Structures
1.
Amino acid sequence: MTFTVSLNHFIFVSAILFSLGIYAVLTRRNAIMVLMGIELILNSANINFVAFSRYAGMDVNGHLAAIFVIFLAACEAAVALAIVLNIYKQFNTVNVDEVSTMKD
Amino acid sequence: MTETLFLQFATAILFIPLISFLVLIFFGKKLSDKSAIVGSGLIGSTLLLSLIIFFSKINYFHNQTFEYTFTWVDFGYYDSKINLGIMIDNMTAIMLVVVTLVSFLVHLFSISYMKGDIRYSRYFAFLGIFSFSMLGIVLADNFFMIYVFWELVGLSSYLLIGHWYEKTSAANASKKAFIVNRVGDVGMFTGIMILWSTFGTLDFEKIFSLMSLGVIPFESTVWLTAAGLLIFCGAVGKSAQFPLHVWLPDAMEGPTPVSALIHAATMVAAGVYLIARVFPIFTADALIVIAYIGAITAFVSATIAIAQYDIKKVLAYSTVSQLGYMVMSLGVGGFTSGFFHLVTHAAFKAGLFLGSGSVIFAMHHVLHHHNDHHTDPQDIRNMGGLKNKMPITFWTFLIFTLAISGVPLTSGFLSKDDILAGTLAFSDLTGHTIIPIIAFTVAGMTAFYMFRVLILTFMGSHADSHRIDGIHESPWQMTTPLIIFAALSLFFFYSPNPTNASEGWFYSAVVRPETAVPENVSASSIESFEEAVHHNHGKAITLSLLIAGLGILISFATYYWKKISADKILNMFPKTFKFLNMKWYFDELYDKTVVWFTMTTAKVLAWFDFKIIDGLVNGTASVTKSTAFGSGKFDNVVVDGIVNLTAYTFGFFGLIIRTIQTGKVQTYLAFAIVGALMIFFFFN
Amino acid sequence: MNNNFLNIGILTWMTFIPVVGMIAVLLVPKEQKTTIRWISLGATIVQLIFSVIIYTNFDRSLAGVNNAATMQFVERYSWIDIKSVEWFGRIHIEYFLGIDGISVPMVLLTALISFVAVLSSWSIEKSIKGYFALLLLLDTGMMGVFVSLDFFLFYVFWEIMLLPMYFLIGIWGGPRREYAAIKFFIYTLFGSVLMLLVLIALYFSVSIPDASTGELVHTFDMIAMMNPANYEANSLLFGLNTSWRYIAYVGLFIGFAIKVPIFPFHTWLPDAHVEAPTAISVILAGVLLKMGTYGLMRVAMPIFPDAAIYYLYPLAFLGFINIVYGALCAMAQTDFKKLIAYSSVSHMGIVLLGMAALNTQGMIGAMFQMFNHGTITAMLFLIVGVIYDRTHTRGLNDFGGLMNQMPKYSAIMVIAFFAALGLPGLSGFVSEVFSFLGAFQTFRWITIASTLGIVLTAGYMLWTLQRVFLGELPEKWKSLTDINNRELIMLVPLAIIVILLGVYPTPILDLMNASANELVDFIKGENNLTILGQ
């Protein structure tokens, strides 16, 4: 019996990744961890892009979108990390619960 | 002499004193002592010109009137103009000489009298403007100009009476003189307004001629009489007639030569001159009022003069009394005699004042020498026995006293006698017998009090025998004017006949003018009056001689021979004496009534203005302010309250909803996800 | 007649030279006090020179009043022109300047008094820059009122003048300056509001054909308002002797009466005078009060001749009250400035009386009195200012005997005092006599009653003179110095004018003769004047 990897598998993996990501974003107190959760979410989306692209026969459109997302993710990470760094400087913590005010 | 020359001379006479004033005001400090020479010299030149005018006018141009008029203000349309101009008739020519002569001699007298005064040059400057103003009145040919100079005379008197203004009494006296005169002037001005609104011109000649054509103010003879009497008000003020005579005795606060000038030639003479000048406009009623005012003045002031001790006060009241005489004379219709008395009186009254000045000067010096500052140098009780020490002053003073008492061979006799005859004639014609009675009584009183002054001052023995040695005759600058005036107080200057003035040049030169008022309101005609005078002439002479003699006799009996004790009489009627000595309490009366009323009204109105009117304004302001405050409250509480309530309501809900705003990113995200799931759930 | 200078009309120069000065003053740093003073003085001197040009070039034979063709130095441009607004029609406001015999003496007076006022402000030290800027702005406002012939423009200048006055009293004044300034401002504004209402009513009643298109346009042109033919039928102010016209006249009258000031609207005056600095008192008495009577002559009476005649008797009566009431109130004062303020009330009464006479002598007397009161009262206030500068008191009873201490000063003071009490040979007499002569022909008894004022004036003036200048000098004033050269420069020209016009008034009378006669004729018009109160 040949075991073919179908679209469903990809979606399944992606859903797990997404759920893990959401979980991380919602429950982690550490900002870095939250960021990592976001990365997971983005990557789950990437998987979907590539999978749908492959199975719907749309050349490389999906791949391109995935690459685009990866770029954006990199940028976002850079900016977000910078913000986190600043928050740390300001509040001496990266715990997102303690950073609830907009000003001092 | 030609007409132009006359007018040029007259103009020069008018303006030279003004030049004297200006020069002395601006360069007085530099000229210092020389200012007297400048002033006297300039006035002397006007005297010369006046004499030239006088002689040629009387001798060669007897019946001509020279006039020069120019338009001063042209109102444009309706042909209304105000003219100024000068005119010379015989009356003017005579007055010019009187004014400039007295003025010149007063200047001369003042040179030594005022020596050492702190405002020496200013004094002469003011004498200059005084002469200028008076000459303006004399030369004026219209009411406007006469009014202008009338007021200027008021100013000059203010300046001169207040010459020693550091003294409160002098400052008060000058103020009083000006204000009392103003009261009269306002009357005169009202008269002028009536004339202007009737005739549209103020020139004498035009008004007289229009009036003789039947034009009268507001077609009513009452207004015509009123106009005349209002003009006369001016004379009442300036000539110190009852009831405005109160300023004149106070005016003695000025230097004595000034008194001579005021009393003899300027100012007080102006009133009489005015009556004479505008004589044609007076109705019979107006003339009767004038006669009575004159008579009352003459009587009241004669009684006051009897009870005064200050030599200048006696003379002042005698002036008022004599002015009353002149006014009365004009009022009864004795035009020429009234005016004649003005001229003769000018000479002997100026002499009397300068004589008293000479005495006061001597007394002042001797008192100063003895370091005596308590004795009043003007009180006749402190004098006596000056006859031998000051012979010139005494003899001239005697002549003046004889003249004013109406003793034959003097000028005073001539004029007074004629006035008395006039009053008799008047009572014959109209039945007002009280006028001649007053006139003769006053004649007797005048003789009495004038000899009282003469005896107490010059005869008997001096009050303080230590003092008498220090008294000397005054210097020549002071005695010369006395001698000149004494000469002019004798009859032959005026008439060849010592008992009848009408034979002299004066009576042919000054003739009563024809009246301009309608016949039904005019006084008795010139002819009938002349006839009545002629008829009464003998009676008047006899009576006046008797009465004057009686007055002199009583005076000698009382003060020289001491047969009658003056003190005893005083003690018998202390109240009467006090009443007379206090001048009938006129000043007090005016203080308590007019002055009090004015000041109280002023204070009440000022209070009214401050409290009521301004109070209303401030009240309006504070009402507005409270209203504003109230509506501000309303705005704050009610209107703004509603607004705030709305805001609070929203705020309340906001507070509730705010609780979900935790500021935690993860909560928001959770909400977002839940929301997304719910959307997915519901809309799928 | 060349009435242009650098292609700008001479009246514009007259009016706006002070604004140029003001801008220059504002550009100078505030430390350079002398420069600021000299710039201000320069501006007023230029104005004075222009006024001399006007005086020499003014054609004495043209009457003006209600005829735009005989107005002189006319400048007429469209200023605000909004084409057809819905339900409002076209709005057309002109920049219309011109003078006639009524305004020319006032223009000269304003130039003269402004010059004197700047000179007398020399010793001001407190924020000098603002002071002179405001003073010059005030000058513009006053001048503008006297030269504008467009009612709107007139109103604008009228209001412009208020503002600087408010600050000048409120900042540089005495201890109660704020009270006085606010009182002055609100009082005048109250009058302005009435004037504004009448202005609007007139605007909607009057229309003239446009020069180019011929369509009927509402106008603010005063001269057009004087012609009954320009009133639209059925408009509010159409016709003669209607109650709306009477109401409008009374509205205008109150607006102007407050400025004069006429009893009972006079109480702002003593306060404003007492608190204002010397120069402002001078301007207030010298020019501002005349704006009231000028307004009556220029605006109220010719626009509403019917109402003017209807209210002639009350006008004369108010004149009488002003004369006597003012004099009596003056008599009771112990503050030198207050006394002069009340004497102003009294003297302005003479203007009213002369105006009410409605004949040549009365009108000329009134106009001349306006001029003379300006110079004489200016002198009086300067005189008070001189001793106030030295002693810092104005209490009449604090003084005495200054005559010997300050001889030059006293000489000038004597001239001013006697001019104020109407001594012949000084200008006050001439106008007073003319006013009375005129008034007597129309109102016999009121005039006779008013002559009481002549005596009262003599009374309080001489009493004041005695209290301040005669008698003994108090010990504390032994060190007072006599008047200095700057003070002489401002007082002597006024004294000379007072004397010259007293002796020979024709130079000024000439200017106004034609206009005064025209004004009288025009107001009397076909309405035969019924003489009341005989």
2.
Amino acid sequence: MWKNIRDREAGKLRPNSFANRVKSDRTSSLQLSNHKDIVSPHRGSVNSLQVDLTEGRYLLSGASDASAAVFDIQRATHSEGLIAKHQCIFAVDKQHEHGHKYAISSAIWYPVDTGLFVTGSFDHHINVWDTNTTQVVVNFKLPGKVYRTAMSSLATSHMLIAAGTEDVQVRLCDISSGAFSHTLSGHRDGVMSVEWSASSEWVLITGGCDGAIRFWDIRRAGCFRVLDQSQSQLGRRPPISGWTANKLSTSKSLLASQGSNMKSRIPHKKLTNGNATKPSSTGKLPAKGSTRQRLHPGLLSGQDRAVSHYGAVTGLKVTGDGMYLLSAGSDSRLKLWDVESGCNTLVNFETIRLQTNKPLQLATSQDSSLVFAPCMATVKAFDMWTGKTSLTFSGHYEGVNCCWYNFPDQELYTGGNDRQILVWSPSQNSTELDWESTADKDNWSD
Amino acid sequence: MEEERVEESKVRVLIENATNSTDSEVHPRLLKAIKSVVRNSDSELRVAAQTLMDLMKFDHSQVRYLTLLVIDELFMRSKLFRSIVVEKLDQLLTLSVGFRRSMVLPEPAAVASTLRSKAIEFLEKWNDSFGIYHRKLRLGYDYLKNTLRLQFPNIQANAMRRQQERMEREIRSKEILLRKYGMLKENFSSIKEEIQSTLDEIKECLDIVHSKEDDGDMIPLDDDTTEEFRSVELRQIRLAALKGEMVHENHDNKVIFDALRELYKLMSKHMVSIQEWISVLVRVDSTDIRFRDSALREFIDLQNSLRVVKRQCEELGCNFTESANHDDEDEDFWEEGPVGATKDGGTSEKKNEDLVVVSTSNVIKSADNSKTGSGAHVGNVVKNGEVCSSNSASSLRNKLLADAPVIEWGSFLNNWDSRTDILANQRGLELQSHWGRVDYDATIPAEKIAELNVRASLYKEDQPEIQPCRAPLRKGGLCPRRDLKVCPFHGPIVPRDDEGRPLNVSSSLDETTPDLKIGSVEQLVRQAVKNVRTRDKEAAETREHDKKALKRAKLAKIREHNAGVLQDAALASTSRSSAFGENMETGGEGTGSDRNKKKTLASMLRKKVSTKDRLSRRLLGAKSSALTKRELKLNEDANYREAFPNQW
């Protein structure tokens, strides 16, 4: 630690790599926090957790008792001894005049600021709430239970909520007009997971109960790609050229704040050549890239029927750089896909069992080196590229539904069926340890 | 390294030994050994934790229970152990509380339930003392309490609540005291005046009585002394000595005595109230110390003077509270007449006993009258004086007293006829083990008390005196047998004289005739009815007696039968399992002491033999039973081998 600091001072170590080292150290020492409690107001299982993207301060949770709550995770409401208790700033539940009637399956922040948040519920409705007045601003009625909602964090030209429902069609709800702007059909069963691409604001990824993961370009009709689990490549895609590889590997470990220019560059690249034409030199890309290009509007029927999981796709997560996609299925598999080539990378994640009947919320660390996945009553952190379990977080007494990794604080939040929201933070510093050791000692009487 | 391994195995063996028993507690010596071994090195502690967690998975509630006890012991002591166990708390809770439906607690059910309650209790204790250091402990507690809604004993909270309740009660009683104190402050003067006035009145009364008596007594005393020529000093001394006892109630001073009685009652009331006020003054902590002290002093003075006066009153000889008792004694005296008469006049026949009673009582009455009339001596017993006065003045009271029931003595007589309310929760004892809040000022109204004191009295039959046979015996003396009608040796019982010769029936009739002559016709008729009734009663009694005897015999028979059946059942059920144990012990080779232990553990798992089994066994007879026994034994062995593969 001190050596690192000296190296940084001497200029041997770049500031961002220093920061990355510290952060990865902290991430690898995550454990159940004894000094930060979130007092859960929920009386049902917690289905969704998200910290707002602008400040990284407000945690939004949605639960099965039709309640959603917002917590300030930086300032505690009160403390008992050295235990900081975070009570919710506000909560909306059934008693609210426009509240949901049934379980909230998904609660997300408006990506631009914390003034709005969106909740999707099993009562077929999506509500858009004003955070300050806690009133419903816009209300969408959907044809079935809402499983998952998503908004693009990159979007500058649209304000669309993608909703995966019981219905086979994915609908895009436009907040500005209050109507459905798109109806994307292609899935053969309900849609359990929805995710916007982290590289293009127009690309939407959906995973259905039919086991298919579909990519949609919302500017065009139909889906342009269906991931096939039989299409596979081994390991990571080789770098395009020498210097970009270096650039990429560093950028992977960069922070979002630092790598904002990087992010803007990638979508740019995608937009220019990603959808229209295949990148010229991707080593292991199958040769039928050109056929896919030709077939785009209505995919080949065989390709259309491709599945990525046996059973339903319960969770989707795009890595921070937008190049890889993680998917969780009811076949208890976690798969890592190369977005660019659409191939399964055949990373074997050592999952034991995953919940099958509920959508899962996965999380990744910021440099995409770790994947946090709820495995029944525990959450496991896997190494992204080898699939080895690096950490196991067991603290919940019933199944875990969702987890969220907060980049700025390197904290992990998990919510489960036992109504709890647990905070996992890096292990405490030495002063706190001192306090603990003084008070909590052996007492042998004989 | 080698040594360490040995040590490790030692801890493991110790723990396994400690948990392998049927007792409800871990053997203290073993526990101490475990603690002392574990205390010295962390590696052993880890081994112990591992062993204990493994033992918790054992498929026997008893083992789990003992393991849990050991875990608790170490948990309360070692920090390292705490951190190890807390990491696996969910597992531990699953195995000890059994809250997951897929993993219920194993047999036997009784131990399983104690295991569960103990685990919950321990969790609460751990959470109270170490919850702030271990988030997982808090989580587990919270989960069991708020999500699963298990009942926790809530020891701490209960203690707190009790403490608070006590505080509240104290505050309330203090308030009441203060209020009383305020009241006292307001009407202190009036209270004092009232008491003082009664005091004065009593004193005046006493003065009057004394002066009168002195006058009355002087004359006879003077007479005596003049005759006997005694010195004035002696007379004075005697007078002083007699003074207390000398004064008696009579016609002249009856009014004064009545007044005195009233005042005496009042005075005792005052005494009680003064006692109360004094206690209030002592207990209250007010700012106005001067008033308190002065009031206290005055009350004590008043109390003392009241005591003096009271003693004087009592010395006066008129014990006011016992006046009723005297009357009772009188009654007794009157009642005793007939009894004595029957005893003495045992010769008289039963038929005309009542007549005799009438006559004798008359005689006694007259004798008494004459006695009181002639006995002009004033120094006679107070009782007689009372009799005299009551005879003459309050015949009505006498009549009432004759009707009044005789009640057994009891503590309820203390507040007989009292009209004051009684505090319900003041018994002088500070009882802590009550079940709820206690209102210390609750009163029971006087009517309720009276209701509560209603006595149920059973009708008690007077056992008639059975006359001895009194037939002359050959060796001299009279036959002492007491039979109702017929003596088995001397025939029917007839009245006999002192030598044992039977009195003639006709002569007895003769004897009674004069009495009959005296009695009027009406009396005769009444007597006849009475006699018939007594005879009927007697007949009924004998019949009842017989019936009872018959019944008793029947009952005894039934009881005997029952006892026999029970004995049989007990013989049949003298736990088959134990019989098996014996069998195995005799049959098996090389039974060690620890094997015995295992056997008992296994026997806890064994199903209880039901009544049905027993019956069928009995029905099947000896041969088949022997067969089944062997079969069962084989089964048992197999089971046992399955359950304890490593210990066979």
